[in-house]
């Protein structure tokens, strides 16, 4: 199902765009991807879930993350004992949240006067309701202002872990639920489902995150592991790019599975054969059982007639 949805809604339309504007004979993007000599993944394997991985996959998680600097927010940072940034990424705008969510966030933030809350918000409807410890801006440099309440986007997770700060993850869509579960599993984040968002739930999550030191310790541990890695992502990017440029053909790293069609890849022919055999066995068993029961019934009736 995932394969079908990915092909139907992503790779197929994108292939058509290339064929329209680049070359009418442009190959399918799936074919281009399968012949790619190397795959560089912007994810950190030290906190990702262990999984079987091809030799052609190189992790370069954390690439391009800059040093933190509070900059224009220094005044807030100096007067606050703690800062929490509330960001839902560049796609989900906080101004479009349901009113119930807005009230829940504002009321929960108001309950922590010793914490300064900073959020990206381009609407005007909350200006008169803002508590003194809540500050809104039309744009925020997320990497400069952490810890955070986040939508658990891919970049947000990487930035938070590399900065060594825990998070409250409220996933919205796509890969975010998986990222939030990962943060919860590694104990550097608190997972709060969309259906659970309320004033009390937010208060409890903020209280736990700021008072339970185990979350900070867990993320600091992963941060140190990343910092002490033998190779930095920038080095891997340069070295592997030079390597591919020198040898070009790395087909010895390409698995045979790229040559399999949809039916072969998902073993649909094997599954069909097994289902067919099992169905025949079940039908045969049913027929034989029915035949035996019928014979026994006839013998019983015949015996009964003789005795009578």
UniProtKB/TrEMBL annotation:
Key word Membrane present: yes
Reactions this protein catalyses: glucuronate acceptor + UDP-alpha-D-glucuronate = acceptor beta-D-glucuronoside + UDP + H(+)
Keyword Amino-acid biosynthesis: no
Residues spanning the membrane: 270-296
InterPro entries membership: UDP-glycosyltransferase, UDP_glucos_trans
Any matching Pfam family: UDPGT
UniProt-recorded Gene Ontology molecular function terms: glucuronosyltransferase activity
Keywords linked to the UniProt accession: Glycosyltransferase, Membrane, Transferase, Transmembrane, Transmembrane helix
EC code: 2.4.1.17
Gene3D superfamilies assigned to the protein according to its UniProt record, in alphabetical order: Glycogen Phosphorylase B (3.40.50.2000)
PANTHER family cross-referenced by the UniProt entry: EG:EG0003.4 PROTEIN-RELATED (PTHR48043), FI06409P-RELATED (PTHR48043:SF145)
Family: Belongs to the UDP-glycosyltransferase family.
Listed name of the protein: glucuronosyltransferase
Organism: Enterobius vermicularis
